[in-house]
Amino acid sequence: MAQVDAVIARRLDSGVPLVGDVSRYIISAGGKRLRPALLLLVCGALGYTGAQRFNLAAVVEFIHTATLLHDDVVDESTLRRGRATANERFGNPASVLVGDFLYSRAFQMMLDAGQMRVMEILADATNVIAEGEVLQLMNMHDASLDEAGYLRVIRSKTAKLFEASARLGAVLAGSPPALEQACADYGQALGTAFQVIDDVLDYDGDAAEMGKNLGDDLREGKATLSLIAAMQRGTPAQRDLVRHAIENGAVDELDRIVAVVRDTGALEVTREAAAAEAQRAIDAAMQLPRNPHAEALLQLAAQLLSRRA
């Protein structure tokens, strides 16, 4: 990861000072770096030790950071990773345009790999992510969204870059198609579980630990799995309360909504869904050669369920 950070620092260089200021602001905030770590772990598990793993790990982090910059503008978010979002600090225009810079810089860096397959994977991933963003926008304030519709959004918006990161590791290692697919399946399942747990924490987390405001999803009118499960399991009055909150982005009743989510067992339902995805990731990782890197992938999937931030 130190090597990846060195690539990131070098490729953030721009003749336009504001580009570097905004990029460094959001990247220096830290974050879990899960996507680049996933790519590195898959490379390690499959025996690839070339320098392109550092370059492509930086690429997926740039793509992820670009989506964060755009997301925070669309969602009108003010807090991320415990401090003001880039749009809150620098304004919406700068955030959008620097997000565009990071996307274009990522595509410049993809060329360094010299493989059309790498370009194909990342071009497809960025396109699917953009579709997922639009799909989520269309679903805002829609209380009729079901579990299948919710999963379609997060598999496009979040899990797709996890999937691409894991698949890239297999491609760099020259893996056969079946093994490449197992890595992609691992990434998709891990990314899905990650987002499901992230949505749980909006109703069962600690704002200080998470570094974002609780209730943000509700304010944005997002029908996450916890709310969908609460409406399915709740009384008519509880369903009406949750439906009204989703349709109106009403956070004034947040305490009552949280109580409904907890009382109906919706959190348990959501955690079970995340556990099923984590198990799917574990099953996929079992197809990799046995070594410390593959063991770390198994542990990552298992420990995801206990995250609190």
From TrEMBL:
Q: What SUPFAM superfamilies does this protein map onto?
A: Terpenoid synthases
One Pfam family assigned to this protein is: polyprenyl_synt
Q: Which cofactor does it need?
A: Mg(2+)
Which stretch is the leader sequence?
A: none
Query: PROSITE patterns per the record?
Result: POLYPRENYL_SYNTHASE_1, POLYPRENYL_SYNTHASE_2
Q: Which UniProt keywords apply?
A: Magnesium, Metal-binding, Transferase
On whether Magnesium is a keyword of this UniProt record, the answer is yes
Q: Does the keyword Lipid metabolism apply?
A: no
Give the family this protein belongs to, as stated in its UniProt record: Belongs to the FPP/GGPP synthase family.
Protein name in the entry: Polyprenyl synthetase family protein
Q: Which organism is it from?
A: Ramlibacter aquaticus
